[in-house]
């Protein structure tokens, strides 16, 4: 597989920690150079801290230790101009793009003071941010003439909703379901260019989004929205590398005819 990957370039959003970092390090180990972006600041509608510049620096160090080159940048995926500046910097450095992983995402299940802010933050990141990423990656992938792969991080919520009246949970589910439709449109659009587009749908994964004080308080209180989120397999939460296993396959030649699918990596969550 390394021969297939050697010299390719991947653009990864939400790369400072969690799943985004895992994807970057995994692909770097196969010789893929990385363009990594993260917001590296907190958002007003969220109840937990986002990644920091130090986290993004750590991703850089891990990618370089794996033997690949990396260009990093700080940008909000909801800000297309800022996101484009990071991608353009990477394209100027590497001269090509082969893989895009639209991974950046946020969630909130706790009560909030301003539901409009919560809704906008989540939809802007999880839906508009994904569109921005795919929109910007499309032309460099097409112009390369080598085919390619786009993987979009959805969620088990993108397949199966759970009952909640909280704005954050509603916005999260709506956005994660919306990007499935976006993926299907892009898969049809890009198929003539041999560019494949798929969504992945993880259950809970260890990350800053799940391992924080706000989430711990909700678990401790027995919040019904969270208690309904149970996997079928006897595992409470997955690791970022578990998701990187699936992404590694989806962007490889082993999945060369796989496009337009919504792939659960959910320990059976969606069949409960």
Distance between the termini: 35 Å
- Superfamily at the CATH H level? NAD(P)-binding Rossmann-like Domain
Structural class: alpha/beta
Unreliably modeled segments: none
Tell me what the CATH architecture is.
3-Layer(aba) Sandwich
As a percent range, the share of helical residues equals 40-55%
Number of helical runs? 9
> Mind summarizing the main beta sheet?
7 strands, parallel
CATH topology: Rossmann fold
The number of domains = 1
- The side-by-side strand order for the widest beta sheet comes to 3-2-1-4-5-6-7
- How many E-type strands? 7
Which CATH class applies here?
Alpha Beta
Instruction: Sum up the overall morphology in one term.
Output: globular
Estimated radius of gyration = 17 Å
Mean pLDDT: 94
3D architecture notes:
The chain is α/β, with parallel strands linked by helices. The chain has a single domain, classed as 3-Layer(aba) Sandwich (Rossmann fold). About 45% of the residues lie in helices and about 15% in strands. It is built from nine helices and seven strands; from the N terminus they run H-E-H-E-H-E-H-E-H-E-H-E-H-H-H-E. The chain has helices at about 1-5, 20-30, 55-65, 80-95, 115-145, 165-190, 215-220, 225, 240-250, and strands spanning about 10-15, 35-40, 70-75, 100, 150-155, 195-200, 260-265. The protein has a seven-stranded parallel β-sheet with strand order 3-2-1-4-5-6-7, with helices on both faces. Helix 6 (about 165-190) links the parallel strand 5 and strand 6 (about 195-200). The longest helix is centred in the middle third of the chain and has 30 residues, at about 115-145. It is globular. The two termini are about 35 Å apart. The model has no long low-confidence stretch (mean pLDDT about 95).
């Amino acid at each position: 597989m390394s021969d297939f990957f050697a010299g390719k370039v991947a653009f990864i959003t939400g790369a400072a920690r969690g799943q985004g970092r895992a994807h970057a390090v995994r692909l770097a180990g196969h010789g893929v150079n990385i363009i990594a972006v993260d917001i590296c600041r907190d958002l007003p509608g969220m109840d937990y801290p986002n990644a920091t510049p130090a986290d993004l620096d750590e991703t850089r160090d891990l990618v370089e230790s794996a033997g690949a080159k990396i260009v990093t940048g700080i940008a909000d995926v909801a800000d297309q101009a800022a996101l484009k500046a990071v991608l353009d910097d990477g394209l100027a450095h590497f001269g090509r793009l082969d893989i895009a992983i639209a991974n950046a995402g946020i969630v909130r299940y706790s009560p909030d003071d301003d539901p409009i802010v919560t809704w906008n933050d989540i939809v802007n990141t999880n839906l508009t941010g994904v569109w921005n990423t795919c929109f910007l990656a499309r032309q460099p992938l097409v112009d390369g003439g080598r085919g390619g792969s786009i993987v979009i991080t959805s969620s088990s919520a993108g397949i199966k909703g759970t009952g909640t009246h909280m704005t954050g949970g509603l916005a999260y589910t709506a956005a994660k379901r919306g990007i499935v439709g976006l993926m299907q449109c892009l898969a049809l659009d890009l198929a003539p260019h041999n560019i494949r587009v798929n969504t992945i749908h993880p259950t809970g994964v260890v990350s800053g989004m799940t391992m924080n004080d706000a989430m711990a308080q909700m678990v401790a209180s027995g919040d019904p929205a969270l208690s309904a989120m149970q996997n079928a397999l006897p595992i409470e939460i997955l690791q970022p590398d578990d998701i990187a296993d699936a992404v590694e396959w989806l962007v490889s030649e082993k999945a060369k005819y796989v496009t337009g699918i919504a792939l659960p990596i959910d320990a059976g969550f969606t069949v409960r």
